[in-house]
């Protein structure tokens, strides 16, 4: 069994959340432009968080190699 890190768990949760929001947008769930903008803002925030976590994971893994 592979070692699952906290990074992997967070990235999986963020990916799931992003997919849910994207699917809601595709399905036409936002009833107003404000709801649409809110959903897009959440996607942007999740993408930023994911990028930060991936960078931190990379840094952590590289420091373990030293």
- The beta-strand count equals 0
Global Rg: 15 Å
SS strand fraction: under 5%
Rough shape?
elongated
Mean pLDDT across the residues is: 94
Q: Helical proportion?
A: over 70%
Quickly count the helices.
Answer: 2
Report the end-to-end length measured between terminal Cα atoms.
25 Å
The number of domains is: 1
Please characterize this protein's 3D structure:
- The protein has 66 residues and is mostly helical.
- The protein has one domain.
- It has helices at 6-26, 33-65.
- α1 (6-26) runs antiparallel to α2.
- The radius of gyration is 15 Å and the shape is elongated.
- The two termini are 25 Å apart.
Defining key terms:
66 residues, 82% helix, single chain, mainly alpha
Mind sketching the topology for me?
Layout: H1 6-26, H2 33-65
Helix pairs in contact: 1-2
Compact overview of the structure:
The chain has 66 residues and is an all-alpha fold. Helices cover 82% and strands 0% of the residues. The two termini are 25 Å apart.
């Amino acid at each position: 069994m592979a070692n699952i890190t906290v990074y992997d768990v967070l990235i999986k949760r963020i990916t799931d959340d992003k997919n849910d929001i994207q699917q809601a947008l595709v399905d036409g769930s936002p009833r107003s432009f404000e709801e649409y903008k809110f959903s897009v803002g959440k996607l942007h925030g999740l993408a930023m968080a994911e990028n930060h976590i991936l960078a931190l994971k990379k840094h952590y893994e590289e420091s373990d190699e030293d």
